[in-house]
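Issue 218. Parser rejects a valid record. Input:
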Amino acid sequence: MFGIRVTAQDGATRTHPLPGTQVTIGRDASNTIVLEGHGVSTFHCMIEVGAGSVVTLKERGSTNGTWLNGKRVDEPTRLGENDRFYVGPFLLQLTRMAPPPEVRGVDVEMPGTAGPILRSSGPHRKWRDIHARLQSYAEQWDVHDRAPRFLLRGDELRQARRWLGTPPPSVADEVGRQVRELISASIKAGSKRAVIGAAFGVFGVVALGGVVALCVWWWRQPAVGDEPVAQAETGAEASTGATDEEPEEEPERPNPRPRQKDPETPTNDEDAVAANVEGAIVHEVIPTETLLDVAKRYGIEQGELIEDNLLNPDAPLVPGSKLEIRKPKLRPLPQVKVAVDPEPGETWKEIADRFGISVTRLREFNKGMDNLVPGQKIAVYVDTKPYTAKNPDAQIPEFHVDHASKSVGSVTAGRIENGVKMPEDSNYTLVSSLVWGSAYTIQKLREALATFRRDVDYEGHIMISDLSKKGGGQLDPHKSHQAGRDIDIWLPAVRGSYRKKEGAVGAKKWRRPVGPEIDWYATFGLVRALIRTGAVKYVFLDWDRQKFVYDAARNMGATPAELDEWIQYPRSKSSSKGIFRHSAEHFTHIHVRFKCAEWEPDCKDTSAAHGE
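Output the parser choked on:
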């Protein structure tokens, strides 16, 4: 009698007898053997027992495939004793079982004959359930530009903090960066709310104390016509509530949009490194990827990868699993998964060509999908590469400047004289009508965008958002953007594949790219062109995102001196070094601030380094 031994990621094993001629395996509860885990399809595969106890393994159209002895199963394959095959992260083996003892007159319930379900042990399953829920929250938060309303609060946040302090069940269960950032941002927001609450509490106590003191003072005043109370001859004041202490100041009312700590405030050591730029890398496996692919990607030997991660060299890599690259010789940016909306009439080959991959691989990413249907998204995994010059000999056009157009005042309390509107141009796309600036800003911005198109072979759109309104002044919801020297630019999307907003039309039908949709090589190429104009004072981007710009810059040939001068990372987010500066909630766009021009005597260039 044969059985199937199933080994889970946490080492738990269970052997299931083959009770009949057919055993189905998958995630759905109707399967004979139900496996829950990443990479397991609803109806994954089946095992058939034929005449002469011939056991056959068959695929059922699973997304990630069934792997037998290191090879993908594409057609019915005979199983031999102790053959090993993988369903998602689970290792399955055909084993021979001893026949059950014959017992007469007593009903014996045989274990595993009623569709057993292999799940993680209690604590492990609870850990993974919480992880899945938090991952869902984190993705929703990221898609909505990390809006504060999607942060964790109360019991949910307390549970997340406790959960984060417990070790994962296995290496493959490592907590993702997105979940960590959600919890961290939620903790910070909770601390701010506590400070604001305490401030109001102190204010309330002080106000109540003032009312009580006023009542006591009024009660102790002599009635009209009464004799005043004589003071004691000791020289002390009469007890009227007055003291020698300074009166307690009323606390400042909290700002409805709390500012981040001013990044210009220096740390104790301005050059102190806050992040390890030479440390290990965690690699997330994508579909069809092999050990050799991963090893070559980081310039290491397969044996090193196998040894460091305790891998079975005969087993296929499980998509979505994590591998630690302890000593990478190369540091490429992470591969990204892009959800693509096929255009009407678009073919598999056209999409494959657009993303620089083969049709075969694109099909592998989307197993089970035969035809392209508009509105039905397909998955594409893209390995972004450093860009080279598109047309290095092209001449940058001259953009003329009218010196009558000037920036006046500061970016938070200023205006524009004779403002210039950013014109339409094939080098970029305007996604806002509030695109007025000083002539100097518009000149240098257009010069940088033309240089970017010459030096970087990126075909996607560059989306230009808010500058200032005509004449400048307050521009809600911004605190700056008043003097025609601030501009928001979307981070470029991988292969220019921006996602559409539901129901939106025109230039506003697209949304900003989030997380894995961002092309960091194009981002660096754009910022490099801006900085080299000599007209940019700051580029604001969340500190955690600067890591990707830093790695992209190194891979695109930035010198150590340029890295040090241009990028705040890996120094602390409070460091005042670098043109890049941390500004909270700048995850999907950069905020570029230009300097004053020489002919702008009333322009003030002393604003604090924050990008609101």
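Fixed in the parser; the record now loads. Residues 103-121, 221-268 have pLDDT under 50 and may be disordered.
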